[in-house]
Each structure stands twice: as C-alpha cells, then as structure tokens.
From TrEMBL:
PANTHER family: 40S RIBOSOMAL PROTEIN S17. HAMAP family: Ribosomal_eS17. It comes from Naegleria fowleri (Brain eating amoeba). Belongs to the eukaryotic ribosomal protein eS17 family. InterPro entries: Ribosomal_eS17, Ribosomal_eS17_CS, Ribosomal_eS17_sf. GO terms for cellular component: cytosol; ribonucleoprotein complex; ribosome. GO terms for biological process: translation. Keywords: Ribonucleoprotein, Ribosomal protein. This is 40S ribosomal protein S17. It holds the Pfam family Ribosomal_S17e. Gene3D superfamilies: Ribosomal protein S17e-like.
Amino acid sequence: MGKVRTKTVKKASKIIVEKYYNSLTTDFDTNKKVCQEIAVIPTKRMRNKIAGFTTHLMARIKKGTVRGISLKLQEEERERRMDYVPEVSYVDEIINKGIEVSEDVSDMLKTIGFGDLKQVTRVTHGSSAPHYQKRRGNKSY
C-alpha cells in the first residue's frame, strides 16, 4: 500500500523543485540536505517527507514532464518542439508516393471532376469491404 502525502508536503516539494531544480538530484540524502538549507521546516519528520516527495518528483521529471510543475528547461524544450516545421510535410510525402483507391472511390472522384489526378491509382480488388473469417466450431449464436 502507498503512503498518504498531505497537501503541505506536495506543495512544498513542488515549490522546491521549481525554484531549486539545478541543486536537486534523485538521491534522498542530498535532497534532504538541500531542503534543510533552503527552507525552514519545523520538524525532522516533515523535512524527511518533503525530501522524499521531492526525490520522487525528480525521478518522475527525469522520465518526462510532470503535471503541475513548470520548469524553464521543460518550457524551452516544448517551445522548440512546437516551433519545429518539417521541410516536407507528411501528407505531401504520402501524396507524392501515390494513393491507391478502389473502383467505387475512383468513380466518385470522376463524378465530382477529380478523375484526372496523377497521384491517384485505381486498384481492382474485387470488393473493398473488409474480409471476415468464418467462425470456427459449432457454436450457435
């Protein structure tokens, strides 16, 4: 079973991680010393709980982003990903490779005036409906 962490412990840990991220690690003992130096925590038990949750948060941050904690490093990385524009879009790559359509779709394209598209190739498979296997066994449903 997991331990219950109070709102006080969680809030204090989140604030410590946001402000002092560079001096924290995934080691409990070093985080305990950092918490003792930077914050006024009334009891040893409370300090240990905060240091433990801080260590837990640091391990989660190492794996990926953590909800509720905004680090400048994470924000910069997110902005870099959002600003990235590929040279050729994925949709353009697929269109340039060619699109295979069934006879029915090809006929529909012709009726609306798009029958002469170069990238579209007509495929004759018999039927475009999914092919299902028959059930095995003698069960009656």
